[in-house]
Amino acid sequence: MKVLPKKLLPLILFGIAVTLLFFVQPAQAFTIKLEQVGTNVVANGSGAINLTGLTPAGGAAIGGGGIEASAGQIITGSPGSATAYTGLNGPTSFGSGGLFNASTSSGDLFGRFPTQFGGPLLVPFLYTSGDPLTNSMTFDNATFASLGVTPGTYEWTWGTGLRNQNFTLIIGGAGVPDGGSTVSLLGFALLGLAALRRKLPLLRGRKS
What we know:
The protein is of the alpha+beta class. The protein has helices at 8-23, 144-147, 181-205; strands spanning 30-37, 40-47, 55-62, 66-68, 73-76, 80-86, 99-101, 104-107, 110-112, 121-124, 133-139, 152-157, 166-171.
């Protein structure tokens, strides 16, 4: 059997390491990013929720997306039936704005109801923990100022700190750390490649 040239080994190992960066990623908690896009404000949400540690509080019929910064309310997704859960800990507002309905809203229902109603978490009816959620909404001809939202990162948590027992609202350009998983994997890959390159000259000097 023909042996692969030793020069290919670093490339092969580096390729495997880079592949792992994309396939060995922990599931991310649900995050909504609210951004100014041209003359509109756009919200995009994605991620998963772990319902462990929350208490079911009944059903709710939701008419679509909207926001009320002074009450800590944000609801994204298409109109439909949702289940409410109590037990959230986190900010009670993310600005001074009143209630604004989204111009368009689509995708899986998700959100936090107003503080005056207990601020429960809303997920699609019959939602199963860990299922991925994706949604979006747009406020036409709007700005952060007109909606009364304050740029920053806001996080709600519950339970005992298990994975996805939280969700985050990012208003503006702030980022969400990935817990160091990607950086760690890349670091190991580069260290492995450096160690292999140090050994290769010795391998080349040996007689086959």
